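Format notes (please read before filing issues)

Several people have asked whether sequences and structure tokens are stored in separate files. They are not. Every record keeps both together, in the order shown below: the sequence lines, then the token lines. Line labels are part of the format and must not be stripped during preprocessing.
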Amino acid sequence: MEIRKASVDDMDLIIDSRIEMIRDLNNLAPNENLDKWFIENTEKYFRRADQATMLAIDNGKAIGCATICYINVLPSFEHPEGKRAHIMNVHVSEKYRCQGIAHKMMNLLIAEAKKNGITEISLDTTELGRPLYEKCGFESTKEGMFLKI
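Then the structure lines:
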């Protein structure tokens, strides 16, 4: 198994992993098709440069992914560059869970954010994901969780 930053050459793996996550989170049947526009817009988004996605791959199949989306906001005293990020779609296939895969992907995303001068990372979470994010240093807020770098 490997965990690495995805490239546009990994588009099929990214899309497959995202579809699995969407189905899992929304309790959709494996044979339930997602709208074509959803897949097309997802692919269009992942081709943009304002994000980075980590993939966990086992035997050529995506078994997990996590994405950081870069956001430029109005500079402030706390964040003079106005560089922030939001983590989304942290997901690991059910049979691979509790093996540290999501934690490794999160650490890679945090390192990627630091390299890009990000001063704050936010994310939304489920109760199931909260312990992982706390282990990575995130703190709870009214709106979700965040990590101040």
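For reference, the curators noted about this record: Residues 75 and 82 are 4 Å apart (CA to CA). The beta strands are 2-5, 51-58, 61-72, 83-92, 120-123, 139-140, 145-148.
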